[in-house]
Design brief:
Elements: H1 2-48, E1 61-73, E2 76-84, E3 90-96, E4 101-107, H2 117-128, E5 133-145, E6 148-159, E7 164-171, E8 177-184, H3 198-201, H4 209-213, E9 217-218, H5 224-232, H6 241-251, E10 256-257, H7 263-293
Parallel strand pairs: 9-10
Antiparallel strand pairs: 1-2, 1-5, 2-3, 3-4, 5-6, 6-7, 7-8
Amino acid sequence: MKDIATIIFRLTISCLLAGLVMGTAFVLTNKAKLHNAEEREHKVMLGLLGYSAATSAPESLALHAVHRYIVTSGENSTIGYLVPLKGEGFSFVEIGLDGAFVGQQPVKLAAEQAGEAGTRDAAITAAVGAGKSLRYADQTIIVTENGRRSAYLLPGVFPGFKTFVKVILALDPTFSILGLEIMEHEEDPGLGGEIVQGYFKNQFKGKTFEALKKLGVVKTPLPEEYRRVLTLGKNNEAIGPEEVAKVQAQYQDKDIYALTGATISSRAVTNGVKGIANKFAYRLAILDKVLAAQHIAVAF
């Protein structure tokens, strides 16, 4: 019996040590994974704004994150926005489903903590008080240059042909498309998986907000001259900037040319992009109206 007890004790200690090692390894690797994902997302956002390692962003450029929540109290629901204030600090602004101002609360949160979901949620919960539940909805990045809005960066997720497609959409102040990047997808390789290729995703670039509202998908083969511009971009010696501008202007108001054999994936991305832009424009108009009426001085 003594030997059995000793064996059980040793096995228990071994399991506890193994669990500790595995748990520590998970925490460290998961933290590194999240950091790498954030770094990649930040790099993509700057790329959509036209900046790269060769062309660094100016110091006057600032990215302001606005986090949207669904706030529930009993049977009532409101929309809450965590907004950065001018100077420093944060405020949680609640707006009714009818677009009317409900209230605002200061949120005790350091700027570097705003990106940490757990810390952010706890700070907002403490600010709004007991009896209300929060559900995170999404994040918007409002870009300013020298204090004036210059772009919007919209991370979004929508259904694809197989599962979900994760993207970042960049809009200018008039909601015309600056660029689109596909971040994650599980579409079929060689078919729907081609949504990551420049000749498809770059078709959205330059579409105005009005054109986007009625944008459709056609099965007509992608014209070769257009494909070359979409693939090579404007900074290439093969075509030249004047020819690139001419071709882009020719197709700016055209529908999206579907990927061969992947019309469903093409239509899914098109509808997804339209949905993200339309919903954002609608919500921003309401938020801006409330901020102006309540004289809330935000950083953007």
